[in-house]
Amino acid sequence: MSVNPTYLQMFSTVTESGELRLELKEQETPTPGVDQVLVRIEATPINPSDLGVMFGFTDTSAATSTDNALTAPVSDQGMRIMKARIGQALTVGNEGAGTVVATGDSEAAKSLDGKIVAITGGGMYGQYRCLDASACLPLMEGHTAKDGASSFVNPMTVLAMIETMRMEGHTALIHTAAASNLGQMLNRVCQADGVELVNIVRKQEQATLLKDMGAKYVVNSSADSFMSDLTDAIQATGATLAFDATGGGMLASNILTCMEGAAARTPGAYSIYGSIKHKQVYLYGGLDTSATTLNRGYGMAWGVGGWLLPNFLAKAGMEVAGRLRGRVAKELTTSFASNYTNEISLSDALQVETMQKYYAKHTGEKFLICPQK
Questions:
Q1: What is the DSSP string of 297-325?
Q2: Looking at the whole model, is its pTM more than 0.85?
């Protein structure tokens, strides 16, 4: 296959003058090493985790753009928080998919020549990506790059959440921001695997969406009856593990309070130290950037911590990671199907009007970058 000698790559840089610069730069197309492949990137999603690298602590409302660059001011507080990355041009994009157009000489690399593969490892917001053959997930016959573009972050997070539940001795899950693309995947997998799932949403239309998908337990955090509804759902499922995508505010604390309230309904369970069963909330996102507040009114058997997919996979080991990736490949267009509301080019992503739409992170909206457009 023909390969262009140069290509466009997106970079995000915080300058010493207090400005964030997101831009496209022309790069020399690399030649794959012995165990490497060169992938022509054809589809790559915009995930919340990508936005963190793209914009950091930036005032996006004051952004301006040209054809190949978008700039936005950074506050003094933002400069302090991002001090370690000042002056560094960071590549953007966690995952993507495309066609292998050149390979190294190893058998593993050559076996992927011409195949459509899903890949992860950063730098996906570009027209080409060179990486080890072992980092590629070959797609099954009939699957497109668009099908495989979101095959790592959301699908692997869903499976890793369930794996975490089993490894830590829990039997059911609670998930916030449950109407998201990831939340809908989690519902499909939990229903298929017989795992009880409590979904927390913010709006009635989101609750209706999930119930129409077959979700059994859906509670609305904006309802006056939220705490009692959540306690009822936890009692019914026995859920003692939650994954919170919001991160800030009182939600993690409220979940623990309801877990404790559900446990206290068991006759003879009362103790001055609270229920014996460990209750755990993992924060895996930051949709709410305010401080995380804990009221500690749920005994002593509880925990709140951070949870990150790469850290889990490193801890779980290669066998587990391989097993999960194999399932993703088999169920790519069913359990792990992603729906995109907007398909844009690399240049489109740098236009203020477009940026404001994907940066808003509205439930039900998902943007796909097509670097070859």
A1: -S-SSEEEEE--HHHHHHHH-HHHHHHHH
A2: yes
